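S1.2 Input.
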Amino acid sequence: MSFNKSVSKNFIIYIFFTIIFLVLNEIYYIFFIEESSTNNLENFTYANYHDHSIYEIYIRYIYEGNNLLVFGNNYGIASIYYIIGEIFESNNYILLSHYVNQMIFIFISLSTYKLFMALRINLLFSIFITFNPANFYFLSLINKDSFTILLILLFVYNIYKQNYVTLFILIIISTIIRIQLPLFGLVLLFLLDYKKISLVYKILFLYIVSCTLSVILVNNIELISLDNMNTSLGFGITKITKELNQNYYIGSFLLNPIKIFQYFYDYLNGFTYIYDFSKFDLYREKDILNLFFLPFSIILLLFTFLCKRKVHEISKVFLLIIVAFFIVWLINPTINYRYLSLFVPYIIIAGIYTLNIRINNEK
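S1.3 Output.
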């Protein structure tokens, strides 16, 4: 009975903070997005205008009936907003996306609550997922990130609760948002649920599959011009990987571990933007909370592994989310820290939760 009362009290407090965040996001929209859109939104870093403008172009393609049979990362999200625009008879996609993202945030909040209650995790950890300042950026304009955050939570929850029918429906739906997401869901299911095989063997097997797919991708699908790629994406490793894949089929197998370090280097490089106000860019500044906690969590987790201490099962769940991310996203030959930013909260939670368990065990 007391547990139910505690859950009820926690839920009320949680909903209160959810409403506060929604109000703050509304203020953010009014002052930064709506006001900026009356001028030239492209000059502002308060939202991902670049992607928004691309999706509007694809929405126009759909209106015109062009390339409707093309399968790609952009047509799915564009189709969603095309349908929403038709329903509400509006082409003001800045406003429409605002209300869609507000609704998505409500589902993110409820999904985080359900997952944390199922795992019996303190709701204070939700600050890194639900109430993370980065969400002000992710909840602006047309983007895939808000949907991705929600789907990650739903994947983990349904795998943990063994709701396989719901999980596979979500995996099918996720193909509309990002082509990497259904593969991520399947990889996560294999890592978290199928326990007859050693976790080390599972990760090794998935790494081989990931690298093989990366070699096939680079050698057969010219997604971008890798020869003309800016060297800031991987310090030239991307180009070396491509050449080794094309000539010897071993580039991804040898260099993907280095790319993992580059993901983190690129992400942690955001510290330079925090201390240099002349470089203010909300695309970087949005990660300020994560940037302060991530190094601490990484050090703590490394210490745990090096000392051969057992990782708590709950921390392992969050760490395997990161493993699944790298298994899937390393198939892509390029490196972009923006994808990692969606998964960093799970590293932080794993680290802090590990510390919390250790402190409680020593009392």
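S1.4 Remarks. Residues 97 and 141 are 5 Å apart (CA to CA).
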